[in-house]
Amino acid sequence: MTEHDILSDAEREALSEVMLAPPEAERCVLIVEDDPLSRELLAEFLALHGIECATASSEVQALALLECGLPIGMMLTDLRMEPHDGLHLIRTVRDSAEWAELPIIIMSGDAGVRDAIEAMHLNVVDFLLKPIDPAKLLELINRTLNL
Q1: Residue 121 has what DSSP assignment?
Q2: Exposure check for the chain: N or C terminus, fewer CB within 10 A?
Q3: How far apart are CA 86 and CA 59, in angstroms?
Q4: Cis bond leading into 131, ω under 30°?
Q5: Residue closest to 32 by CA, chosen among 23, 24, 43, 22
Q6: Of 124, 59, 65, 125, whose CA–CA distance to 98 is shortest?
Q7: C-beta separation of 90 from 81 below 8 A
Q8: What is the pLDDT of residues 71-111, one digit of tens each?
């Protein structure tokens, strides 16, 4: 500490720890997929890469998980689900006050151009076609969650 410093060495060290600490972030990915095998494979794949997941098999379950206060950082949703599709879920999320800015990736095995255009108008991070390229998915999630 010099005579011109306004911080003590202890204060400087405490400030340095705060500045270097990673920010508290919402790093959990909500996977919304009605096919149980696909849902579990996605969750296991992400868990193997250190990404926490919550899973839902429907829009109703997804919205309940969002409302329960889990630290959801992004959502990965299937397009084709019953009774409402992934676009309906995204519209509902975008219309909410709390989750309107949630990053969302949509995936589908049988999407048309119209679906992709509508998804982009709903401000999704990306629209992935199944089978999903694991490296691309991981890169998108890591970039979106700042991992």
Answers
A1: H
A2: N
A3: 8
A4: yes
A5: 43
A6: 65
A7: no
A8: 899 999 999 888 888 899 999 999 998 999 999 999 988 77
* Structure-token pair, residue 132: 């999903």
Burial of residue 26 (CB within 10 Å: 0-12, 13-18, 19+) is: middle
Structural domain spans, the chain:
25-144
Determine how many CB atoms are found less than 10 A away from the CB of residue 48.
9
The verdict on domain 25-144 having CATH code 3.40.50.2300 is yes
d(CA 80, CA 78): 6
Contact predicate 31/54, CB 8 Å? yes
For 9-40, write each residue's pLDDT tens digit.
777 676 565 455 444 446 799 999 999 999 99
- The total number of residues written for the chain in this structure: 147
For 105-137, give one letter per residue: b (16+ CB within 10 A) or e: bbbbeebeeebbebbeebebbbbbeeebeeeeb
CA–centroid distance for 15 within its chain: 30
